[in-house]
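cron nightly-structures :: item 1 of 1
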Amino acid sequence: MKKQKKLLFARNIFFFFIIIIFTIIIMSEKKDTILIPKATKKIASYIEDKYNNDDFKLGDVSYKNNKYTMKVSSKENNKRYFFIYYTKTGITDSYQNDYIEGKSFLSNLKKDLEKSIKSIVNTKVTVEIPTTLDQYTDAVRERILNEDNLLELKFYIIKEELFIKEWDPVEIEKQIEQCITKYTNSNITPKSFTIIINNDNEITESIEINNLTTDFINNPSKIEIINDILNDNNSILLKTNKITYVYKN
């Protein structure tokens, strides 16, 4: 009888400690959620001290991976935003990268441009935006932020691959010209084109040609330019036209 009571007592003690452990775990997880209002006040105070609070719309605070995060958006453009992070070590933000330089905004804009271009010319392309938002003039930056007829604004680069069956300057020039014309005919006028030409008969032969513009179409030396590239001749002609190339393989 005494042995049974001891076993029962031991079992109760075991379950008691299990309950205590689970309670501590649950309370620990809920504690961080309970502290969200405190974190919100801290972050709001941080914004008021460091930035002009009237320019921004404050989002809700979330908690994940030992960090409180608030998304702060521009009142004029909710696609332009940055994040504020609150941890035990202090408060930091992504204002410079995301808001001033426009990292998040331009990343999303790049995807939108790729979708728009594909829908118009039925070609999958890669769009590159080589400059951060703060490097543009006020007029250009405002137009980019307003997304005002951007396909005609020369601030982005279109990158496309071509597969060439006849690996000679005349045929390559012809296909590059057709490629550029395809876009200009649809009023898609990037800052420049980066075109990768691939030899359809030799998979190891691939060249990336950079800084091609619409002027290339009317360039009287365009065949010579392609010939110099095929011969790996970084000539004065290429430098004059500011065209560069890279052998990919």
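cron nightly-structures :: done
Residues 35-100 form one domain.
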